[in-house]
Amino acid sequence: MKCFLRINRMALGETRTHTKFIVIVNILLGFGCLLLSLEKSYIDLLHADWMIFGYLLFAVGGIIGTMAVIGVFRDLNSIQYSDVQMSLPMSSAQRYFSKLLALFYLHIFPVLFWGGLTVVIKTIEKHNSEVYRFFWTTGDWDFFWYESVDWFRLYLCFAASVLFLDAVGVLCAVCCGRRAETGYFSYIAAYCLSVLPGLIRNRLLQTWGGQTMEAGHAFFVWTWSFWAKTYTDFPTYLLLINCGISIALMVLMYFVYRRRDAGTAGRPVSNRVFFEGVMFAAVLTMLSLNGSRYGILLTITGIAYLVIHIITFREQLSCRKIAVWLGKYAVTVLLVFLLNFAAYMTNGFGAVYYIPSESLDGAHVVVTTNRTTGSAVFYAGSGLAIYNERMEAYDGYVAPISMSDELKRDAIRIVQRHLAAQEKSFTDFFQRLGLIETEENWRHDLVNITVFQTKTGPDQEVMTQSLFLPYHEINAMAEELEDSGLVRAMEDLWYDSYAHQFHR
Amino acid sequence: MIEIANVTMEFRNKGVGGDGSTLTALRDISVTIPDGCVYGFLGSNGAGKSTLMRLLCGVYRLQKGTIKVDGRDVWNNASVKSEMFFVNDETVQYADFTLEGLRKYYRSYYETFSDEVFYRLAKQLQLPLNRKMSSFSKGMKRQAVVIVGLASMTKYLVLDEAFDGLDPAMRKMVKDIITDEMLDRGATLILSSHNIAEINELCDRALLIHKGELVFDGEIDKIRSCACKVQLMRKDSAITREELEKTGVDILKYSTMGSVAQVIVRGAGDEIMQKISAVPNDVCELIPLTLEEVFIYELEARGYGHEVLSEN
Description:
The structure holds two protein chains of two kinds.
Chain A: H1 2-15, H2 19-38, H3 51-63, H4 65-72, H5 79-86, H6 92-127, H7 130-138, H8 141-175, H9 179-209, H10 236-252, H11 254-257, H12 272-287, H13 294-313, H14 319-345, E1 364-367, E2 375-380, E3 383-388, H15 405-420, H16 426-433, E4 446-456, E5 462-470, H17 471-483, E6 487-488, H18 490-495
Parallel strand pairs in A: 3-6
Antiparallel strand pairs in A: 1-2, 1-4, 2-3, 4-5
Chain B: E1 2-12, E2 22-33, E3 38-43, H1 49-56, E4 64-69, E5 72-73, H2 78-81, E6 84-87, H3 99-107, H4 115-124, H5 138-151, E7 156-160, H6 168-184, E8 188-192, H7 196-202, E9 205-210, E10 213-219, H8 220-224, E11 227-233, H9 241-246, E12 250-257, E13 260-266, H10 269-276, E14 283-288, H11 291-301, H12 306-311
Parallel strand pairs in B: 3-8, 3-9, 6-7, 7-8
Antiparallel strand pairs in B: 1-2, 1-4, 4-5, 9-10, 11-13, 11-14, 12-13
Helix pairs in contact in B: 4-5, 5-6
């Protein structure tokens, strides 16, 4: 307790030196709270559309947290501040944690306070509305509670976002030695960390696994705080874990901070591993954005890579240095390609075997083709069938006859095996990577397979997975399925009554 | 007491933005600073004075050697640092503070901080309490930081070029205030300055560093007497350097003007006179050196600013 009080006293001492920031952040968040709270309630001028400005002010209030981080950790950016702060009677642990506490007072607390106030006002306002009064009087507590929880989730999103940004800011502040680098590396790192898991999922697992996977929440647990609100099924507990990871990162960065002294103050980046890590993540992010315009992406990323090196190194430019940096970029791109190639060869690091990604219960696989000559496989919750283009008129699902889980798995394993058994070639790799895209070599023979999930999306829509197989592989798969007795020949299907298509 | 033993400090300019070079800022420095003294750090620009001060105050992490303050390590030691106050050679970091804000800031770190001393000294130096320090002159900023340092009531006060920017009258006043406040309570003052006269006047001990190496350290009087100037005259021909060196004296500088030879010799006066008397001469005169002359001749002997110093 005595130790905390001492750290708190130091944190308050640090906080007092950032009065301008305190005023600015509270003005932003205060007005954000006002706009969100008064929306369509008391003032006619504040139409619902104004709410976006409330969110915007909150977003700006959150983003400028990086400024607070830079200010609080200024002892790492300037030898003058190092002289003052590192000679003060504090151990490195006391200094670091007093800084974290100062960051809490400066930025995290205002976001939590104004966000909390907004949630309280909105909840009270909603509970006073006619609709709420109706449910209140009818005793429909579920509805009453649901809306309150929704605002609580929004509050947790504020908290998760601000903690995420500040944690990334602290990471960069501890690894950088100048204000500018701490600033722009914070935003680069925050962006990469936010989108990279999704891009890795899309590019490395989904594309090369030959399927679309259901959004795995655990996969995005830390970095999806910004988008969590848009996914109503993003569990609240994951938001709490999200906050926990950010706090843990801030605490763990102490072990890097304690190794630093004033000697590294003023160096653009004090930790080479950090610099190369961020640069690799940035290149990977950029090259995973859109596979169909790889040439443009390579050029834009290369220019950005070079510019960041010029800014960061602050050296006199020479042709040799630029050549070295371009060489480094080429190696980084090669690594990204190798990573993609590894994913291609392993079918998305084995992601192909997660079809369907959710439970088999009620899952059904539909294989269709828009080629007139194509045949197709239909796998329903209780069976599989092959049909051809003539069956496009067929709508709805056939009432399935019960099929055991074991048989479902057998059928799915055959689908997985054929997906994994696709012929590998560099041409195919580069084509699917997006480096080659011409009419001549476009894969005309790919057949789309759609796996319908039992699980429904945020708007109760049916969740699907899209798989692609070459035509000849589809035929082989259909034959194997038929041979195994899991499906019947399409001629039989066409003439059989629907009710008996999916026997067994 | 501060014991510095075999301290070596290297700056490796590695990593992002570094050119890979290594600069040895301090090489095998060993010094003892007794309690209650006023200790002066002398040295040329870039000699390593500020680096040594930063090591003393735990701003830099020690690489080789040891620094013990009352038997304890400084680095990462809050209790040792609570007995030290460091004023560096810049004031830009205080620009956003008011003097009152600076008081509150340091008060939250130093439990021994005395408001009474702070307000008394601020009044004495007529410094405005609620004006931003960015509007202060350089001298006023210096005074403000020194006041805070004194009010922190630490056992050790470390001042790096603390009197820079002060006019002569204010310089004297601040020096008087520092010596009164510090010596009254038996505290130790460590200061660096390029102004040797100032060190000569204020300090009872000093050290000289050049290019990271310790040239000498000890009591000022002893330093002054560790070298002296000898003027020799011989009517028929000037005494040559070789003749003098044969006597075994350590010559820092030798010059002639007609039949008069002037030599700066390292060592005690009596001993030097005894050795030099072996050389035939008509007149031999021993002239004590000032600290400034010792400083100049020692650095000159090491090739520092040779051309400039020779011209002067």
